[in-house]
Amino acid sequence: MIYVLVKDLFFRSKIDATAQALKKKVSFSNDVYTVKNASLVLVDLEEFGLEGIQKIVEHNPSVKIIGFLSHKRMDLIQRAGMIPSLKVLPRSRFVNELNEVLSH
Questions:
Q1: Global confidence as pTM
Q2: C-alpha–C-alpha distance, residues 99 and 3, integer Å
Q3: What is the C-alpha separation between 3 and 65, in angstroms, rounded?
Q4: Where are the domains of the chain?
Q5: Does residue 67 sit in helix, strand or coil?
Q6: CB within 8 Å of 34: residues ≥ 6 apart
Q7: Are 68 and 89 spatial neighbours (Cβ–Cβ below 8 Å)?
Q8: Does domain 2-103 sit in CATH 3.30.700.20?
Q9: DSSP structure class, residue 30
Q10: What digits encode the pLDDT tens for the residues 23-55?
Q11: Rounded distance between C-alpha atoms, residue 23 and residue 15, angstroms
Q12: What is the DSSP code string of the chain?
C-alpha cells in the first residue's frame, strides 16, 4: 500500500492524478498513526516533520519513505539524513520524478 501524507490540495491532486494514470492505489491521510502495512510513504516534511516520520518507522520498520520539502529548508534536510529509511527530495524534483516514485 502507498500512503500519502500531504495537506496541500495542489500536491494531493497532482499525486492522485498521477497515481490514477499509473493505475496505482494510494491512500491519503493527515495522520501518521493511520499508516499501517505500508510499502511506500510519501510525506510533506514541512507539514508532518521528522517526528511523524519516526512514528511511521516505529510501526512499519521496513517501509520506504520519500519526503519532499522546499529546497530552502536546509535545517530539515540535514536532520532528515539521520533517518536511514527516508529519502528527501526538493518539491520540484519530487514533482518531476513523481511517475518514477509511484512506479516502485
A1: 0.89
A2: 15
A3: 9
A4: 2-103
A5: strand
A6: 3
A7: yes
A8: no
A9: S
A10: 999 999 999 888 888 899 999 998 888 888 888
A11: 12
A12: -EEEE---HHHHHHHHHHHHHTT--EEEES-GGG--S-SEEEEEHHHHHHHHHHHHHHH-TT-EEEEEE-TT-HHHHHHHTT-TTEEEEEHHHHHHTHHHHHH-
- Sign of torsion over alpha carbons 58, 59, 62, 68: negative
Q: What is the dihedral of CA 85, 103, 3, 60, to 10 degrees?
A: -40
40 with 30: CB under 8 angstroms?
no
Closest CA to 44 of 83, 1, 3, 85: 3
pLDDT > 90: percent of the chain:
49
What 8-state DSSP symbol labels residue 24?
-
CA 30, CA 85: separation in Å to the nearest integer? Answer: 20
β-partners of residue 5 are: 29, 43
Q: Any residues with CB less than 8 A from the CB of 76 and at least 6 apart, and which?
A: 45, 46, 49, 50, 69
